[in-house]
Every structure is written in structure tokens, then in C-alpha cells.
């Protein structure tokens, strides 16, 4: 797999994963990749409602496997820590492991219950000058 194919497939899978998360999180009132008013790793806020936005950082190992039975130019998968399963098919394979880092801003759902404010008591002092 050449660099162009690797970048194309990696970005396509990241975008596809973000789209799937956006769709499934709608029911839970979370927003994946909301429009941001400002962006920094310390503090980010939604441009929609000034709600704080968390930045979820990913640092994953991606394996590209090319072999004699692979006709697509290489399979791109997240590297597994433990391999499960067994194949009796003989094949020559080349594997390349690369790290991919990216982050996704997430606006978590806010509680629907707002605390009731207590009525203010006491005396107000106004000073004229």
C-alpha cells in the first residue's frame, strides 16, 4: 500500500467512525464534533450554546497487511493486542504498523434538571457618593 492509499483509507475510516458515533449519540443528547466557539486543549466551548466541549484524543496503532491473497492493495485494521482465531491457509504476508493520532471534540449531555435557585434574603446596601 502506498502513502496515498494509506492516508485515504485512514481518513475515510476515521470519518466513517465519527459519522457512526454522531448518529448513535443523538439519542443520548451528546454531540460529536460540534461547531466550536474557540478551540484549545485546555478549554473549548460549543458555538451552539457555550457548553463546554471535551476533546477525546486517540493514539492508535494501525496495521497494513499485504499478502498474496489480498487483492485490494492492503487491508487497514487497528492493531490487535491479542490475536484470536486460526487460519490454515498458507500465505505470504507483509505487515506494517503505523501510529495514527487524532482527536474528536465531544459535547457531553447536560443534566435536564436545573437546580432551583434560592430566593435572596438579607438587606441590600446602596451607597451614594
Which tags fit this structure?
alpha+beta; 6 strands; elongated; six-stranded antiparallel sheet; 129 residues
Number of helices: 1
Main structural class: alpha+beta
> Into which percent range does the helicity of residues fall?
10-25%
**Shape summary:** elongated
Mean pLDDT: 76
Element-by-element helix/strand order: HEEEEEE
Distance between the termini: 78 Å
Count structural domains. Answer: 1
Beta-strand content bin: 25-35%
Uncertain segments are 80-88
Descriptive notes:
The termini are far apart. This protein has one helix at residues 3-25, and strands at residues 31-32, 36-38, 44-46, 52-67, 75-78, 93-107. It contains 1 helix and 6 strands. Strands 1, 2, 3, 4, 5 and 6 form a 6-stranded antiparallel sheet that branches. It has one domain (3-83, 91-107). The protein is elongated, with a radius of gyration of 24 Å. A hairpin with a 7-residue loop joins strand 4 and strand 5 (75-78). It has 129 residues and is of the alpha+beta class.
Amino acid at each position: 500500500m502506498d502513502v496515498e492509499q494509506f492516508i485515504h483509507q485512514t481518513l475515510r475510516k476515521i470519518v466513517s467512525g465519527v459519522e457512526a458515533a454522531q448518529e448513535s449519540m443523538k439519542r443520548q443528547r451528546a454531540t460529536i464534533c460540534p461547531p466550536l466557539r474557540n478551540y484549545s486543549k485546555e478549554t473549548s466551548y460549543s458555538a451552539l450554546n457555550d457548553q463546554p466541549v471535551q476533546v477525546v484524543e486517540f493514539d492508535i496503532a494501525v496495521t497494513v497487511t499485504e499478502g498474496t491473497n489480498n487483492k485490494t492493495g492492503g487491508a487497514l485494521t487497528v492493531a490487535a493486542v491479542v490475536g484470536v482465531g486460526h487460519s490454515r491457509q498458507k500465505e505470504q504476508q507483509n505487515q506494517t504498523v503505523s501510529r495514527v493520532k487524532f482527536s474528536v471534540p465531544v459535547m457531553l449531555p447536560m443534566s435536564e434538571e436545573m437546580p432551583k435557585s434560592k430566593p435572596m434574603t438579607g438587606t441590600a446596601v446602596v451607597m451614594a457618593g
